[in-house]
Model the fold of this input.
Amino acid sequence: MDLALSLAAEAFSNDEAPVGAVVMEGETVLAAERNRMKALGDPTAHAEMLAMRAALGQRGTGRLDGCDLYVTLEPCAMCAGAIAHARLRRVYFGAEDIKAGAVENGIRLFGQPSCHHAPEVIGGIGAARSEAMLVEFFRKLRR
Done:
């Protein structure tokens, strides 16, 4: 999670929402990304999506079964859907997203009968650091 948090800080420095994500296969980092929606002009360029795409490229299998995702913010519905399709084994996240989260908040996608794969989810890892960055980013944005 430390790498994801450092990527979130990098996103913050680049005026992007401070979210970082890392895909691990065992002890190996397959991919590490940060939010780049503004930089790429792409609303799908969430840290999780970019990290999963890069990890899929590394593996060349079309799936991320047996891999874990570390992300600093609870995934949204788009990212949760991609996580299910990629068949990630486990998702660790930092801060809860009461407004747009879709794992432990909102639609709780992995608990829906229509969800074909539900990874193990562990929330709250590095939450205080994640939340502090997010609060500061949005406070700065609203000035």
Observations:
- The helical segments are 2-13, 37-40, 47-59, 77-86, 127-142.
- The first helix runs from residue 2 to 13.
- The chain has a mean pLDDT of 97.
- The CA atoms of residues 72 and 94 lie 4 Å apart.
